[in-house]
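Much of our argument rests on the idea that a fold can be written as discrete symbols. Part of our work consisted of pairing the sequence of a single chain with a tokenised description of its backbone. No coordinates are needed to read the tokens, only the vocabulary itself. The record that follows shows the chain in one-letter code together with its fold in token form.
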Amino acid sequence: MKRYLAIIVAVLLVLSLSTSAFAVYDPATDGVSEWDGEVTTITVTDRLPGIQLDNNPILKELEKRIGVKLDISVLDAAQYNSLIASQIAAGDIPDMFYLWDNSSNVNFQKWAQEGLIWNLEELADKIPNAFTWLNANDLAYGRVPSLDNGLYGLPRMQQLTPDAIPYRGDWLEKLGLEIPVTPDDLFEYCVAVSTQDPDGNGVDDTWGLFITQLGDKGGGLIDKNIREGFGIEPETVAYKVIPAQEGFMDLMDFYHDLYAAGGIYPEFYLESDIYADQEAFRAGTVGTMFKTTSLDHTMPYRSNASEAFYQNNPDGEVVAGYPLQPNGTTAADAENYFHYITMSCWGVFCISKNASEEAVDAACRFLNFGCTEEGVHLLTNGIEGINYKSWDPVLRTKVAFTQAEKEEPGHEERLINAISYLCVQQSWKNYGKLTFGGNTPEEKAEYMKRYNELNHGYIVYDNIDTYPGYADLKTKNAELTTKLNDEMMVQYIVGGITRDEFTDWLYNVYCPAWEEVEDIVEAVRGPKE
């Protein structure tokens, strides 16, 4: 089904990059800010694992550029949510604090309702960059629906690394196949990997697909890279939960038939590790990583993400495939299809109502600075000559110091890491990737080429978790969701129940319980066109 932009309600942004758009902030040519007023100290609570705060050069640089000194209290990252809640409950409320969770955090909602944190829209004149850097979808992560959808936290958005389905390029060549484009192509590839001994060891030990993380949306059986080949759309676009959509049973039939043909690891349902598919791919036993993954996991050069693969498969090759398109199309039709994404938000920054006027102003200066390319560069990359040797703004390459160079006498500051978790935004504008992968100029060029090929046709949509009423409905239907994920889908795929038994339960029990989704989406988006 060809998806025309005119019928898509949730569209806010279509991302498409060209090589000319790769250049980002360069302190050497774009300059740096200078503060000529008094420096204000504010108390901050954050989760900053492995960071040395004493004499940190980046914190000193912040004082010079924006006149803000951060007095940071670091809480254990693994227990951060409970620890920050205990701290605030005890009345120890910092001027500014970070929440690992965003709008789904119960304490965040509670503190906003109790008047402990600022509605940032009341401070909009002090943080104008936030409202130009972030779009309406982004800001939704920091809103509290029960308080007129007020903005009580500034979302920290993540970089977009183009989604890709990784395949074994060497196996494709051996099997005489092209990179899969449609569900039929993927089916053929998976069965061939399972039945034709592509690793040539004479042992029946390879499978096309290893399913992990069963789920009713996002990841698992309804992975977005695969489901789009069946015309399945996000809830806020379709106004329906995924299992209620027309293409859902087509997807289930695909898995059912693929399992029967031997294309899926037979005991996938016993696996509880959600990363088992990645481990199996790196071990050389499966033909593709199942869950939505990114370009970084499909590059041929050695990196932290790929080293294990090449240790196990020294002659192996990984290639990237675009998210699936409907059957009957080809790679030449890719520009006619769009890939839905919801951007990732990693927490929010809040400003305390207990903070003094000077502290509020300083906290706003920090957040406003963090929503600029200069702020992103300083807080994620650091300072040239201290945190890194050189920076190429076109290749987005930061050359690091060797350990020996860090330990040279007189350069103790080189041993202090940049504070990536303190960054306000973890991407360039419009979710641009912070750095490009590759260890040589040739590898950098190849990465940029693939980045440009894959990074097109994206439609940013609302995450339904941010819509008023959905959390309550989700809680109400939790048992049904568990039954769908852990029992009904698995049983149908492996042949434990018939299609009629599955659809009878799906359409007479499960889907009716989620009909309210249409009203929830309509209340935010308006009637479906």
